[in-house]
């Protein structure tokens, strides 16, 4: 990034209040030097003096009063249209601010027309930063001491990277917000972890000792602060039951949940995508009715019942498949994958069919056919390609839900995954485990939403074009 581009990027970021805060936090040294330089030059700012004199002249001519009347009329119409009840003093305040802004802009435009600003330049933080960049020593020290700020500037000029960075930053607030909400619900819940773990025969001294060890005797704000601190340090503590490290316990169960999710999604896609395509290409045919009936059946059958039926038939009666999950045995994933995959395939097949039917009769599809393109290419590239947005959304959300753990199927198949682990702990309630589970699920859902949005841009050129101008 050359110096000219750096200064223009700095100017664009500084105009945005949120990025201005980030610049001060990530590049405090650079911003401090730039600020003092700006303050030292501001008193000699001929641009500001000319603009102020011109503004005062137009104000004496009554232009501000005209701008104020027009702004007041606009504010009143806006409030009337949106049926907002605003006091007269508040309307006047809003109109005054708009009139002041319009008069300043009018003065600036007139000054440029008259050529009064041709020999002077406006002194701003951005212009001072640009002047400082001309000094090689400042540039070198600034990059060393404010490297995070320059990384942010590098990402800012790349739309996709900027979008991803902003979403990841917002994810932090989501995680803290969800943690606060769940912690508050657990705090006011009538369930007592000490009594549930120690049993009804526990003495009051034992219960008090348990609460003291785990900090449950502390006030609400103290416990909440400790929870936020553990979230920042990635140390979510130990579980109340079993005294195991929560992060280690979740990570040990993550590979199993990931494998179940992968095989289930594979089964779902193998069944749903071809069924949805054929149903859309041949609507209201025998295959279409049969496929949609099976899809409705798949949505209606509970997972626990289907899992038990498959275990009875293929494990107990025929002996083909293991009845319970066996670590290291890939065959034991078959029943859980079929149980979960068939349920998801029903939703994805219906979404594929409806999305393709919406696209099927579009003008550009008729144009593609009129050009003599092969039907296979028209279906797969043009119809399916343009119908992928809702399908990707459905698949992505299903994937994130599975990564949170399919507790019912895990219980039926004896899989010690994340879902069954969190469900078991929430009835105690084992607060560190429940909070860790909520943070994990929130992170997975947020990450999947981000990946879905990026896939949108890769598939749809219109969205990609908008992202480039982001």
Structure commentary:
- This protein is an all-alpha fold and 470 residues long.
- Helix content is 79%, strand content 0%.
- It is built from 24 helices and no strands.
- It has helices spanning 3-15, 17-26, 28-42, 46-60, 63-81, 88-114, 125-133, 136-145, 147-156, 159-188, 193-198, 204-213, 220-232, 246-281, 286-300, 303-317, 334-360, 363-370, 375-386, 388-403, 407-413, 418-426, 431-459, 461-468.
- α17 runs antiparallel to α20 (388-403) and α20 (388-403) packs antiparallel against α23.
- It is extended.
- The relative contact order is 0.08.
- The mean pLDDT is 79.
Summarize the model shown.
The chain has 470 residues and is mostly helical. It has helices at residues 3-15, 17-26, 28-42, 46-60, 63-81, 88-114, 125-133, 136-145, 147-156, 159-188, 193-198, 204-213, 220-232, 246-281, 286-300, 303-317, 334-360, 363-370, 375-386, 388-403, 407-413, 418-426, 431-459, 461-468.
